[in-house]
Amino acid sequence: MTKDVFTGHKKPRLTLIGAGPGAADLITVRGLNVLKTANVVLYDALVSENILDYIPKHVPAICVGKRAGAHSFSQQEINDLIVEAAFLHGHVVRLKGGDPFVFGRGQEEIEHVAAFGIETDVVPGISSALAVPASFGIPLTSRKLSESFWVITGTTESGIISDDIALAAKSTATVVILMGLNKIREIMTLFQQHGKGEVPVTVIQNGTMPDEKNVIGTVSTIADLSDRENIKSPAIIVIGEVVRYSRVAEIVLQSRNYR
Fold first, then answer.
1. Which of 20, 55, 57, 233 is most buried when burial is the number of CB atoms within 10 A of its CB?
2. pLDDT in tens, 135-177
3. Is 66 a catalytic residue?
């Protein structure tokens, strides 16, 4: 990005805004209001086109990629671009899917720009880890079924499965795994090793969006079912008895095809 794209001499500042789980009307009111004050917007690939329509037409909006397994900008390049845009343009809005502090690397960006004396702020967003199961009628906690829940990344920075998944597999908690579809077979093997083969699981693609789709099965069947239904990223995995509360779970789980 060349400097001549940015003009003006406004006070440099950065606001991280969580765009929510996908649907345009699930961004917060504060997030929407702050977005309209931006001088430049740097947005992630998971932010829906309908949300981008809220950006004023005269404001530059730059996609910086950041989709699992396919980054058009490295994190360092994004950090540097934020600083460049802030000093040359003023108010930078960093628009992120979900919530900036739930696997959004928001704190890394704040720490980087703060070293340059740039004022920062955060507008929380609704994480897909909470909103997407809810949109399918799945409570992450329920008396007698689940007293807590885990939210875990499926793949760590080094490209391996998080050790926390093995720990979560030992518990009775609901487990929500983000960015884990490409590791689903390995993940389910860990749960099977702890006797969880018949625990319900759902995988939800593009949750809250018009083209959302999901598949429901058990720990022992969900990987094959996801392949059969051609489930793709972005998708979340929900593991636990609470999946039975899904709008269609009982019908599906009682079908022999899903056993």
1. 20
2. 999 999 999 899 999 999 998 878 889 999 999 999 999 999 9
3. yes
Instruction: Please count the other Cβ atoms lying within 10 Å of the Cβ belonging to residue 138.
Output: 24
Catalytic residue among 96, 179, 188, 196: 179
**For the chain, which domains are there?**
3-123 (3.40.1010.10), 128-258 (3.30.950.10)
| Catalytic pick among 1, 36, 57, 66 | 66
Catalytic, out of 44, 183, 188, 196: 44
The 10s digit of each residue's pLDDT in 192-239 is 999 999 999 999 999 999 999 999 999 999 999 999 999 999 999 999
Q: Is 188 a catalytic residue?
A: no
**How many residues are recorded in the chain?**
259
Decide if 131 contacts 47 (C-beta within 8 A): no
Helix intervals (H) in 60-122: 75-89, 106-114
